[in-house]
Amino acid sequence: MCKYIKVYPAANGDSFLIRIKDDSDIKNIIIDGGKGELCHLMLKNEFEQMENNNQRVNLLVVTHIDDDHIAGIIKIFKDKKVNTSIIDRVWFNSGTLIASELKGDKGSNFNFPIASDESSRKMSVRQGETLEGILEETGVWHKKLISTGQFYDDDGIILRVLSPDIETLKELNEKWDSELKKIVKKRMKKKMMSSATDYHKSINELAAELFEEDSSLFNKSSIAFLLEHENFRLLMLGDSHPSTIVNSLRNLGYSDENKLRVDIMKISHHASKKNTSPELLKLIDCEKFIISSDGSKHGLPNKESLARIIQSMDKPVAFYFNYNLMKKIFSPEECQENNITCVYLNRDNGYTVGG
Q: For residue range 216-266, what is the model confidence (pLDDT) as tens digits?
């Protein structure tokens, strides 16, 4: 039995392949498409290899509409050399789907724009360039809202949805236009925003900082799930809010005394300090943590998030980074004193965690 997650070099975004292989079958789950040409080429090659080996993409999960998650998926579907017909099922909570399922029509601009020109940051796109429009033509889109409490079982591979909850989707439906304006404004000011890091501060200093949760509704609407297969557990948190995950885990019976034991946890929102709370970490027992970030956006990953993890786990921890640039976060002395292992994913290790 082989179970691993491949962490693509997705620039400042997310893109993953979960593969579960036994003697008779191989299951593939892709989560998000990241950004950048290298990520696209690797995803494209993955599709080609799966097609050549008569494999399927059993599930494609688009966690939410931020372009660092969705842009690469659009690029895959628009690449005529990629056979996307091998995809069996897609999870994607689009704006129109949210409005339709919740019987509301609050927002007007449900087709979220993807910046195709990175230099100009223009937010307008031609008709048909949204993922929703593309998926409508494929017939593989599971056009039902994905929300907490649902689970998906594919031959013993179980995905339990931990985020978003219905309340968040209702709020997003009501505030779609205003939230969209916020995110467009944020992108237009991106070059002016600070990318200062907190890497010069000590682990103890950062772990003592008060937690303040992310305020983005789009991040809060991110699909997050717990994957279970036999004795293997994987926590994929997208850009989700920790309060939503805490509520879901408590509803599943987990607590400070009955922690969720997972083999691997993908840290939410590129390890932003606003998306990993002490309350969440009290419910988790894990040794391996994945961080997807090239360090180019807003000083992410935040060392503060990693410091919380180090001090919350009563065991040595290993952080898996998809860029070597992250070597500057911890000093050798910090790693030794705190039993931290840092693994830098690359071609030599196949960008994979697990095995």
A: 999 999 999 999 999 999 999 999 999 999 999 999 999 999 999 999 999
Which of 34-43, 104-113, 125-134, 289-298 is predicted with the least confidence, judged by mean pLDDT? 104-113
Cα 215 to Cα 41, 148, 179, 245, 281, distances in angstroms: 33, 19, 11, 15, 19
Tokens representing 25 are 């079958």
Instruction: Give the C-alpha separation, 245 to 161, whole Å.
Output: 9
Class of domain 2-354: alpha beta
Strands (E) located in the chain: 2-7, 16-21, 26-31, 59-62, 90-92, 151-154, 157-163, 224-229, 232-236, 260-261, 264-266, 284-285, 288-291, 317-321, 340-344, 352-354
Name the pLDDT band for 3 (thresholds 50, 70, 90). Answer: very high
Which residue in the block uniquely carries the two structure tokens 């033509």?
137
- The domains of the chain are located at 2-354
SS3 at position 242: helix
